[in-house]
Structure to design on (419 residues):
């Protein structure tokens, strides 16, 4: 076997330009796969992570009617306990379940904020801000002031919203809203802090209030529009949802509430999870396309070396020796090309993972619901690098099976006569 490898190496050095072209094609395919997967994983992880932390939780408990009218931010279908004893009963029951790390209630409602003659329609979130900060890390976005305190008439607003209304931290803002009975009401709160997150949903279209203040404003004592439940990882959502459903059955509340894991939150989340599966196929196709160059190269090599192969056959080379010789040449090209591609791809991806990519123009064009930061940080994974390296080498060898098989069928007499 070593002599076959030495012959393969010598053969590759005969036409260095053609060998370098094949090595470059394999290297480019492997590098593109590493960069593409880093970009896709970084994009999907960012959007899903923000969606889970800020909206869906790992599991959300809501009423079936609320799910149908959620876009309207309806207050008509609250979570108010298993049998009207208050939403805290649901929170306490879920906090004790295996795998649950946090659970709390939120109220979402629409309001019209005004300052002088300027008005803006936004979504207001009444929540347990201490619990919210533990899972969503809201305080990292606060560049001036602080989070609102429970019991205080304070509100946290985004920078772009404050700029559009001409507000400063410490200033007062009045907003109009409908309470749970449909009555039009107004309230004036002090701005306790300013968010600068880069997420349009937070910077332009959201306001956070203490939950107790929101319940008092909306005439919803002991009620919230949803209970969000968090586990240690995204993968724990299905098992937590099953545990919550078991509690609902035990309490006789299966028809009153739904337990929805984040994978079923909305159409965009379902689309993103599908995108990861589709791109797994695309990665293989990219390397196969690059290896098409190798396939053509080896067809040319076999046809050009028919006389040489015939002479080797006359000297005692068996068909299996010829098969090993051609596959050894392909293996060396795949090995060097995959190594170069893995080194270049992972190196560039590692640098981008720290430096980031400016995608602010894309974020501005997208809607507020796409929870995407202006700077994208691709994910660098050594597992991805190893898989891309192995895939590049394996597909290169597989692409030469047909030319290699043709080489084994070369008869010495026919090959020498054809020259």
């Amino acid at each position: 076997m070593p002599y076959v490898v030495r012959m393969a190496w010598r053969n590759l050095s005969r036409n260095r330009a053609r060998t370098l072209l094949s090595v470059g094609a394999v290297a480019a395919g492997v590098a593109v796969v590493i960069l593409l997967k880093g970009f896709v994983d970084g994009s999907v992880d960012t959007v899903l992570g923000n969606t889970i932390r800020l909206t869906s939780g790992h599991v959300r408990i809501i009423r079936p009617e609320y799910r149908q009218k959620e876009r309207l931010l309806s207050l008509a279908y609250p979570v108010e306990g298993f049998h009207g004893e208050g939403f805290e009963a649901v929170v306490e029951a879920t906090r004790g379940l295996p795998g649950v790390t946090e659970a709390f209630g939120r109220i979402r409602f629409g309001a019209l904020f005004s300052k002088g003659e300027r008005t803006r329609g936004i979504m207001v979130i009444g929540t347990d801000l201490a619990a919210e900060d533990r899972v969503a890390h809201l305080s990292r976005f606060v560049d001036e002031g602080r989070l609102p305190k429970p019991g205080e008439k304070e509100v946290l607003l985004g920078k772009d919203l404050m700029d559009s209304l001409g507000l400063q931290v410490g200033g007062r803002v009045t907003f109009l809203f409908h309470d749970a009975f449909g009555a039009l009401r107004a309230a004036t709160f002090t701005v306790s802090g300013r968010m600068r997150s880069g997420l349009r949903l937070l910077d332009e279209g959201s306001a956070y209030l203490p939950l107790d203040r929101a319940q008092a404003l909306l005439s919803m004592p002991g009620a919230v529009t949803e209970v969000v439940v968090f586990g240690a990882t995204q993968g724990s959502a299905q098992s937590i949802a099953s545990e919550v459903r078991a509690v609902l059955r035990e309490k006789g509340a299966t028809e009153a509430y739904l337990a929805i894991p984040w994978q079923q939150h909305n159409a965009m989340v379902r689309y993103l999870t599908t995108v990861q599966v589709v791109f797994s196929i695309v990665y293989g196709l990219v390397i196969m396309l690059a290896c098409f160059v190798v396939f053509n190269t080896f067809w040319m090599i076999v046809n050009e070396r028919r006389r040489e192969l015939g002479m080797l056959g006359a000297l005692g080379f068996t068909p299996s020796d010829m098969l090993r010789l051609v596959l050894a040449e392909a293996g060396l090209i795949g090995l060097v090309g995959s190594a170069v591609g893995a080194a270049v791809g992972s190196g560039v991806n590692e640098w981008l993972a720290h430096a980031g990519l400016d995608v602010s123009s894309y974020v501005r064009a997208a809607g507020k619901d796409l929870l995407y930061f202006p700077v994208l940080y691709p994910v660098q994974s050594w597992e991805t690098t190893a898989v891309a390296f192995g895939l590049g080498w394996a597909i290169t060898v597989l692409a030469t099976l047909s030319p290699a098989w043709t080489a084994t069928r070369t008869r010495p007499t026919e090959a020498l006569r054809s020259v």
Notes: DSSP finds 16 helices and twelve strands in the chain. The mean pLDDT is 86. Residues 16-56 form the longest helix (41 residues). The CA atoms of residues 107 and 225 lie 5 Å apart.
